[in-house]
Amino acid sequence: MSVAFVPERLRGKAEVNQETLQRLLEENDQLIRCIVEYQSKGRATDCVQYQHILHRNLIYLATIADAMPPGAPKPAE
């Protein structure tokens, strides 16, 4: 399951670090590859679930980026 699917009670409590961001980026890479593969095989309807997960991950990453003040250092490793 995607790391962006955090239970409501844990939201805002997890530390965002370089490892977490890297894992999420790698997951997005895999999702994109699956989506492209399904689409190339003419199975576009089968890739909808992956598109939803990718969308959620991208929104999560954008939210983290927007929350960081300008010129802030990278998240802790």
Strand-helix topology:
Blueprint: H1 18-40, H2 48-67
Helix pairs in contact: 1-2
Rounded mean pLDDT score: 82
Helical residue percent band: 55-70%
Broad structural category: mainly alpha
Radius of gyration over all CA atoms, rounded: 15 Å
Run of helices and strands: HH
Main β-sheet: number of strands, strand sense, barrel status?
Answer: none
Family: Belongs to the SS18 family.
Pfam family, one: SSXT
InterPro entries: SS18_N (IPR007726)
Protein name: SS18-like 2
What does this structure look like?
The protein has 77 residues and is mainly alpha-helical. It has a domain at 16-67. It has 2 helices and no strands. The protein has helices at 18-40, 48-67. Helix 1 (18-40) packs antiparallel against helix 2 (48-67). The radius of gyration is 15 Å and the shape is elongated. The mean pLDDT is 82.
